[in-house]
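INFO worker-7 received task bundle
INFO bundle size: 2
INFO processing item 0
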Amino acid sequence: MLDIIREYGTLFLIGTYPNGPLGGVAATLLLSIIGIGFAFPLGVVLALAQLSPIKVIRYPATAIRYLLRSIPLVMLIFGTYFIAPLILGRPIAGFTTMAVTLVVFQSAYLAEIVRAGIESLPKGQQEAAAALGMSYGVRMRKVILPQALTNMLPSMVGQFVTTIKDTSLGYVIGVHELTYAANQVNSSLLTKPFEVFVLLSLIYFVICFSLTQFARVLENRLARRHVRQSPSNQAAPTAAATGH
């Protein structure tokens, strides 16, 4: 295995870059960052739409959530890969296809995290903000979302870990991510598939385990902070939050 790392370590890390497309660990992390980064604002909008008192907004948002969560990711990848070029009238790169698919797919799951974070807050927060004359949008922007997003950070890191693992499905459409790099190495060696894929598993384990531990530390810190806070601080919005 050490011989594989010495000879193909660069391929595992960055693919054939700069002589070819970026690949390996770098492409996997880049896809994950794009997926979560762009899915997050969509998830917030979708979550707020699901919580909207207006049925015309709430029902379609709920339907979109159920639809996206019921479709396997690999089917969504194939659908985007084959249907999008027909609609746009030109081919789309595999990396772009995978990035767009991850954004759409992860937005549904992030919307659930955001919705749960908002609903976990005491109802007195919204009632107190409404009593101060705040509109729905102002309440969400200045009082509810800042608190909910802080509580949701560990779950969002966990979703980032899931996204990293989901990028491995990009291999089916030729995206040069980590699994694709491992298959390139396996095709070159031919006689060491066990060592190659054990190494692949170890790389995924190191990345995901590190992020999982970070999420656990973050969760513990948030829990200690909540313990230190007095109930009176949670009963109503602060003067800073209300803008007065």
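INFO item 0 finished
INFO processing item 1
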Amino acid sequence: MAAALATLQAEGLDGLTMGRVAERLEVRTPSLYWHVRNKEELLDLLVDAIAAAQDLSQYADPDDWRAGLVAIMRAMRRHMLSYRDSSRLFAGRFTTGPGQLRTIETILGVLCGAGLSNRDAAYMAFLLWTFLIGFVGGEQSPLSAAVGAGHSARSYLDELGGRLAALPAESFPHIVELAPDLISPNLDSRFEFALSRLLDGVEALRGGGPLTG
């Protein structure tokens, strides 16, 4: 997996091919198929290798479920951001390697310990994971074609803020008024805001029983 991870970091998910991994290992591509059946299986193994590189159980707090989940989610965000295109790699994959199973078990343990029902714990774990992947995906993607071509994100946001503020207020009153907040680049505060609202949902489930739906 070390060669595949190194290829992912160097080439990104689009450049991750069986051939590139073989080149890094200095073997012929057909040799890899003795160990991995195809690229999709390689991606599953990569997901588990990345998950296994982090021990989330150290952040679980048996006396404070909320503090534990905050620490876990912050740690997962940092960890995913350290791997190129990790959000795209993880999105939609439900693998059952030992690393991923330990991640799921830790989160479910905290949610069940908070007093959630089995269904609510399972659904909330999915919601937290989906939020994390989506948020990290936004961080790992260029803001626009201009940023992707090399323009700084800060200069793009400054220009965007000016364009939004200059829109006709009679047609877009809320966008014009909220332009400074819409283009605020502080992703840490945005992450904390969203996470706090999600955990408010956990609190509601603890006190009010299962949500309908």
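INFO item 1 finished
INFO post-check item 1: The two ends are 41 Å apart (CA to CA).
INFO post-check item 1: The CA atoms of residues 43 and 200 lie 34 Å apart.
INFO worker-7 idle
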